[in-house]
Structure formats: C-alpha cells, structure tokens
Amino acid sequence: MNLLFYEICFHFFLLFRKLIAKFLGYSCFADIILQSKMARTKDKVQDFIESTRSKLKPIYDENIRQLTAYAQEKSNKPKEYEQLQAWDIAYWRHRQCQDLYSSLKIDPLQISRHFSYEHVLKGLFQFVEFLFGVKFELENNFDEQYKWHNDVQVYRCIENGNRDSIILL
Length: 169
Known about the structure:
3-stranded antiparallel β-sheet, mainly alpha, 59% helix, single chain
C-alpha cells in the first residue's frame, strides 16, 4: 500500500469522528472523549492550563531572572547571556548548583539522605494542593488484589468534595 492510501484513510477517519460527534450533539470528537475523563470538557482543560500557568509563571520568571544574572556574572561574555536560550538553562542551572554546593561544602547526595519519604510526600501533596486545589487522603479500604506490592499506598484524590480518583504510590 502506498502513502496516499494511508493519508486518504486518515482523513476519512477524522471526518468520520467529526460526523459522529455532530450526530451525538457534540461540537467535536474531543468533547466525547473528555466525558469519561476527569476534565469532562475542553473549557475545563483550558481553565486548568491557564490556572496552572498563572500560578507558575511568576515563579518561573523569577528563577530565570536569577539564573540570567548568574550567567552574566560568571561568563566571559556577559552580553551573550542577556536573555538565556532554552539550551543554556540546564547548563547554567547545573553550574549554579555546583557553586552553591561547593561554597557551602555540601554534597547533594548526603543531603538527600536527610529527607524522609513521608516528609517529601507531604510536601508534594501540599504543593499539588496549592497549585491545583486537589487534596489527597490515605485510603485504607482498598482491595489488596490491585496492589502489585505490599508497600504500595493508595491515596484518594479529593477535588471540590468529589472523591472520584485514586493514585497508587
């Protein structure tokens, strides 16, 4: 079969999905798919993206500002780093961390030993709650057959009072 055949089939498939959506009273096929998902509608997905972006953008901008200042300070050619490019960020972030750890005489591997799983998990859940408004509760009444290991913990996700989903860690 040639490429043209597959392209025609693909376009037919997309058209068929669009017709199904219209027939069922939806504006597009994505609306059908989202009905069974947590988001339910395209608008909720867009609201979620915008809400997340608005909360994280100021933090990101400040981090980039500090990293740009660091790159200009440490570089032999500060003019090149008036605005960091995407490929510069990882390099300068690594250099910044190296300088920070070496000046404090701290080994990041030794530091990691002082962070317990429970403490980090609590911090992660607090961050997710701040960012997305979602809370997590440990679920003790969960069918053991779905756990792949005895150490797996089940948390119930609570959003606007709804307890629809779970995560397994």
